[in-house]
Fold this protein.
Amino acid sequence: MSEQAGIKDLVALVADGQMEFCLRGILTRQEALRIRNINVDIFVHPDKDPGCLRRGENFLQPFSRRYAHALIMLDREGSGREHLPRETMEADLEVKLRKTGWDERGAAIVLDPELEMWVWSDSPEVDEVLGWSGRSPCLRDWLCQQGYLSTLGNKPSDPKSAFLAALRKSRKQKSSMVFFELAQRVSMHRCIDQSFIKLKSVLQKWFSCNY
């Protein structure tokens, strides 16, 4: 909790339930993130990615005196403004947050192109959670064979299609809990996606703790 009585640490607005569960899983990893335990409330915008992008600051404005910090998370793909770079979308949202009562206490994370990009770490935990442990070929070899992944590439060019295909092949049901499990188990040092690196940096800036 914030030192100021009655003020919670963080309110987050996300685009869908999968993103919510992913963020909840990430926030259980305080030691890996090097942050303290925080009090967080997470809301899903009813209009998903476009709602977060176009009206996220209005959704969060009533909370500006009740929370120390605000976070908006959405996918670039499906936002309606896919022509804009991730960095531009984030900067625009953060300006809007400053103007609606959050000053410097808000941040935006735009996943480029979408949440499934965070799935494709080279951690063996990805195979385990997606139902590929012990299978032959291994998940990455299968993705190469199916054309989802270049032998030289680190992540699939279409991360969502690759994710759904891997689940179908392993006969594992798609659910928000898959993202929660991945967020809880996959090494945070292995994810090199820039939006994930920004999320870690923001959380450490706001809630740092030395373990």
Summary: The beta strands are 8-14, 40-44, 67-75, 106-111. The chain is about 45% helix and 15% strand. The radius of gyration is 18 Å. The chain has a mean pLDDT of 93.
